[in-house]
């Protein structure tokens, strides 16, 4: 051991940025934060490129209210982004070899070879946008990465009463997302206060001969982006091109609605009670033990299937889905706290996570990539007993720290959007769930 905790903190943070699903490394980071001599600025991503490093530091200052410092770093991030973009595009001018283009060696027409080469060059240059918005070790780019610089800047300039620069940045943002309602309202405000119109900042991507609109949004997105002012929300999120609804029939007479999405501080969430009877609960708990021993009665297996279908029908009906909901899988989970090992503990029995994306609390992002179950749309948890202490189901913000709701009931159903970050508290007594 070299006893250099500040370097260990940086190494752990770097690893966690590329592997946010790694539970043990997340726990190590929490331990490093409590060590004497380790400061917040020791947690740096050693693999981050200069433009990303400046942007991350700027966001940190912005969140702390240091708008002057944030402005300087956001401007620095734009300069570094320009350098990285020029370098990336220059590298695209060299020989290209793309998967699926091996047939080119068999072509003899010169104009076809030239055409294919420059098609590959254009594809490479387009991917520079995606590459510069992707953190080392990640597969997915940060949504709306370059426009976010101007979003942050326009509000930061507003906070320090530099309205001229604020309007220029707001207009630059609109070059990427023409007609965005909230930013257009900001521009109208700037014009009214200043008494004159303005022009977007003349950066290399917004000047004559610069990049066109097709290069402004990272590939892999469908362009459905919702803008919410930075003062209200930090992350611009993808808009699902369908209206989310809820409040449909619960199908079964015994089922009771306990809390809806509004009461649970989110969207597409519901808390239900009396989904199954006490006898059915007992039968399923016995089934868990039978299955462990390798013998499952037909009656219990049929009940397991029927109750799974009941949960599916309730979800389809309550959320008014237009298409059939299919299972990825259903399973029984038994959690029992070990007697005598629960004193002086406040850790969670099930870490904060999201089912269909990899939660990255440091970046307030949730990455839609494996090993997360990216194909899932809804999760439903059915509690089979209530004779326990603790074991609360909790929702948090994307930082995995700020708790938005905690609850206990028979069944929790949630849509797996970017707000569905959840975990479970410490279990003092046994608890089973389907």
TrEMBL record:
Keywords, ordered alphabetically: Dioxygenase, Glycoprotein, Oxidoreductase, Signal, Vitamin C
Record Pfam families: TPR_leprecan
GO terms of biological process kind: collagen metabolic process
The protein's name: Prolyl 4-hydroxylase alpha subunit domain-containing protein
Molecular-function GO terms, alphabetical: iron ion binding; L-ascorbic acid binding; procollagen-proline 3-dioxygenase activity
GO CC annotations on file: endoplasmic reticulum
Occurrences of domain Prolyl 4-hydroxylase alpha subunit (ranges): 267-424
Family: Belongs to the leprecan family.
InterPro entries linked to this entry: Leprecan_dom, P3H, Pro_4_hyd_alph, TPR-like_helical_dom_sf
Xref: Gene3D superfamilies: q2cbj1_9rhob like domain, Tetratricopeptide repeat domain
Known cofactor(s): L-ascorbate
SMART domains cross-referenced by the UniProt entry: P4Hc
